[in-house]
C-alpha cells in the first residue's frame, strides 16, 4: 500500500480478499488499523465472509444474498 509511481495522478483503489483471515488477534488489530488509515485517502474494496472482520473494519457494507444461482454459459 505504498506510493507507486504508476498511480500518480490517477484515482487509486485496492481490492482485498479476506486480508485478516489468517492473522492472530494482535496482528489482525494492527492490520485493520493500517487498512483503515489507508482507507481515509483511498478506496478499498474488501471481501470477507467473516462478519467480525467486517465489523472491525467498519465502512460501508454490502450483504449478498445467500442463494447462489447457477452460472449460465
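^ Assign residues to that structure.
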Amino acid at each position: 500500500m505504498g506510493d507507486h509511481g504508476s498511480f500518480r495522478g490517477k484515482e487509486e483503489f485496492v481490492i482485498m480478499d479476506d486480508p485478516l483471515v489468517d492473522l492472530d488477534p494482535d496482528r489482525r488489530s494492527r492490520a485493520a488499523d493500517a487498512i483503515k488509515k489507508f482507507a481515509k485517502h483511498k478506496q478499498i474494496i474488501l471481501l470477507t465472509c467473516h462478519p467480525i472482520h467486517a465489523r472491525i473494519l467498519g465502512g460501508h457494507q454490502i450483504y449478498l444474498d445467500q442463494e447462489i444461482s447457477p452460472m449460465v454459459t
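Residues 5-57 form one domain.
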